[in-house]
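Next comes one such specimen:
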Amino acid sequence: MRTYIDRTLHQGIACWPGDTAFDHQENAWETVRVGSVSMSLHTGTHIDAPRHLIAKSAGVETISDDILCGQTDIVDARGHAELSADLFVHVTSPRVLIRTDAWLDSTVFPMTFPLLTEDASQLLAERGVVLLGLDLPSVDAVDSKDLPNHHILMGAGITLCEGLDFSSSNVAAGNANVMIVPFAIMGADAAPARAWLEDISQQFA
């Protein structure tokens, strides 16, 4: 059984302040309908590619399924004001997903939310994590200019999946198999993605 943890794209979904809002238009021809979409690639659930930080680096289409799919630890960080290193002491999987429930209304962009501490980012990098996913719009603050967590995590080769949504599930701490499938957009700095869990075990709950 699949438990989906991505956000459905829809008219009115919040995007990063000042970025291109999601817009779906449908044109009716004689016997069919042909739709079009404009949006920021960082809207809703999305994968960040190295090109997001480093010009002329790899685009999202180069990210391997071996990174995006497989065993993951789920960290229950609901109620935490910050995402500190002690939350990740039980992490053993190469993929980590963080549930905060700090962004429940997809139509309202959260200007503040729990942030990873730089110590936590460094710990995840040292443990050889290859994928970090979380139900927040970013691993850094909205007003951050130097993006310290992006640089620590992506500098260590960790792929980021931002904007997940656990709110329709009862998934808490534990582990599962995660599948994340972004659009393969050549040279893109990010791509919207579907994400789901299978074989969920909540032994940490």
Summary: Residues 3-7+41-201 form a domain with the Glucose Oxidase; domain 1 fold (CATH 3.50.30.50). The radius of gyration is 17 Å. Residues 103 and 112 are 10 Å apart (CA to CA).
